[in-house]
């Protein structure tokens, strides 16, 4: 039986980079965002039900995320409907990963882990974090969103102090070397738990 470690944090805090460190340290990583991309791509399980509900959202056999955002912006009922389609498919993808991976530690990279109650299915949760000013600089330096969009995303996410309080492990992502050292410490503890079980 594998050990399930949830990995979460807020936007711009280095979660994807930290997930990569876990992968380099011999863990299998399941990425919630990547799962949604697979479901929306050609042949993905979400394409047909979304096309049935919103025919204009599918272009050349794949869900167009830009069109989907427009639909959500224009219809308050759209997002809950999309979630009823996508969430069970994401859960099935996650379960397939969990049952098929031979690795001892499985890392579940889920941005809204606490917000969606996903932490209940984990053996432990690691939360990446950085100070608010560094977070803001990182996000805005990407050049992919405005200050307003960044603020909107923050409002949808649980405050980082609350996530940190609920997590079993904390990983400060101030430098890559520091993050890697913390990941190695966490994995050493988890692998000792597995060995003693």
Automatic annotation (TrEMBL):
Functional pathway: Cofactor biosynthesis; coenzyme A biosynthesis; CoA from (R)-pantothenate: step 5/5
InterPro entries referenced in this protein's UniProt entry, alphabetically: Depp_CoAkinase (IPR001977), P-loop_NTPase (IPR027417)
Lineage top rank: taxon: Bacteria
Keyword entries, A-Z: ATP-binding, Coenzyme A biosynthesis, Cytoplasm, Kinase, Nucleotide-binding, Transferase
Catalyzed chemical reaction(s): 3'-dephospho-CoA + ATP = ADP + CoA + H(+)
Entry EC number(s): 2.7.1.24
Gene3D superfamilies: P-loop containing nucleotide triphosphate hydrolases
EC main group: transferase
GO MF annotations in UniProt: dephospho-CoA kinase activity
Signal peptide limits: none
Binding positions for ATP per the UniProt entry: 12-17
Compartments where located: Cytoplasm
Homology family: Belongs to the CoaE family.
Purpose: Catalyzes the phosphorylation of the 3'-hydroxyl group of dephosphocoenzyme A to form coenzyme A.
Name of the protein in question: Dephospho-CoA kinase
Natural source organism: Phaeobacter inhibens
Gene name of this polypeptide: coaE
């Amino acid at each position: 039986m594998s050990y399930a470690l949830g990995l979460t944090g807020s936007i711009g805090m280095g979660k994807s980079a930290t997930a990569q460190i876990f992968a380099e340290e011999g863990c299998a990583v399941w990425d919630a965002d990547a799962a949604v991309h697979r479901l929306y791509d050609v042949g993905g399980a979400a394409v047909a039900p979304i096309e049935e509900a919103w025919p204009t959202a599918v272009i050349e056999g794949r869900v167009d995320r830009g069109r989907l955002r427009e639909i959500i912006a224009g219809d308050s009922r759209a997002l809950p409907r999309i979630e009823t389609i996508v969430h069970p498919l994401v859960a099935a993808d996650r379960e397939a990963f969990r049952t098929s991976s031979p690795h001892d530690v499985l890392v579940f990279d889920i941005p809204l882990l606490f917000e969606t109650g996903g932490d209940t299915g984990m053996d432990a949760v690691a939360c990446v974090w950085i100070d608010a000013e560094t977070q803001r600089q990182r996000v805005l330096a990407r050049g992919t969103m405005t200050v307003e969009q960044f603020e909107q995303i923050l409002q949808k996410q649980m405050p980082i102090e609350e996530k940190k309080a609920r997590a079993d492990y904390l990983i400060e992502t101030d430098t890559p070397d520091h993050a890697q050292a913390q990941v190695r410490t966490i994995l050493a503890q988890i692998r000792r738990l597995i060995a003693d079980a």
